[in-house]
Amino acid sequence: MLRFAKMNGAGNDFILIDNRAGDIHLDRSQIARLCDRHRGIGADGVLLLEEPSNHADFRMRYFNADGGEAEMCGNGARCFARFANQVAGAPTKMSF
User: Fold this and answer.
1) Phi, psi at residue 59, to the nearest 5°?
2) DSSP letter string, 21-74
3) I need a labelling partner for 93 at 20 to 30 A (CA). Which of 58, 63, 81, 86 fits?
4) Helix (H, G, I), strand (E, B) or coil at 84
5) How many angstroms separate the CA atoms of 32 and 61, rounded?
6) From CA 81, how far away is CA 60, in angstroms rounded?
7) CA distance 33 to 47
8) What's the CA gap between 31 and 12, in Å, rounded?
9) pLDDT tens per residue across span 21-35
10) Is residue 54 within 8 Å of 63, Cβ to Cβ?
């Protein structure tokens, strides 16, 4: 079972997954299937909440609907900040 949330930010929708434990490893085809609007959950992308690798509060990993990883998504970052606050008790001011 995969626990997730779905959020919308300025017209884009995202699947958000808490992966702070590091035990979720999705490949490109699995992400594309999750994002498929006919056979999956349906989304513009997947966001993973992970432990940071530097001095940030969290790490945001963003995958496009085709499963490819991208560096940034502004609308996704808005959803990510809200998700981090809800599931990880992040402060209203955070870095990721």
Assistant:
1) -115, 130
2) TS-----HHHHHHHH-TTTS---SEEEEEE--SSSSS-EEEEEETTS-EES--H
3) 63
4) helix
5) 15
6) 9
7) 15
8) 16
9) 999 999 999 999 999
10) no
Query: In terms of Cα–Cα distance, which of 82, 62, 57 is closest to 73?
Result: 62
CB-based burial of residue 14 (10 Å sphere; 0-12 exposed, 13-18 middle, 19+ buried)? buried
Name the burial class of residue 48, with classes exposed (0-12), middle (13-18) and buried (19+) by CB atoms within 10 angstroms of its CB.
buried
Contact 42, 14 (CB under 8 A): no
One DSSP character per residue, 58-70 reads -EEEEEETTS-EE
What average pLDDT does this structure show over 47-67?
Answer: 94
Structure tokens at 63: 């995958």
* Consecutive H or E run containing 12: strand 12-18
Provide the whole-model pTM.
Answer: 0.92
